[in-house]
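>> received
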Amino acid sequence: MVKRIMSDFASVADFVVVYVAEAHPTDGWVMSRNMDIGQHRCLEERLAAAEMLALHDIPCPVLVDTMDNATVCAYAAMPDRLYIVLDGVCVYKGAPGPDGYQPEEVRDWLQKFSG
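>> returned
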């Protein structure tokens, strides 16, 4: 659904994905569908994991959080979260995922914004 939103509103908004600390590393809170990604010990490991994500046909730039998790701290973005920033101001802040991850809310906001 997110890829579809990115496609539908490409002329209205710029989209980015920010890859943050791995939510379910193999050496942490393991889930059955985990990829073989451990907790990042250095920026190179985080960059490599972000490159693996980018291979999944992400239709926007994939940015990478710093090792001190500045983005996670500033945006409470763990494990995932959706934001809309307009002219430097946060105009939409979704609830924390996974339960609060509601792409349809982003679609609704963008539809209202674009008229």
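>> The beta strands are 17-19, 62-64, 83-86, 89-93.
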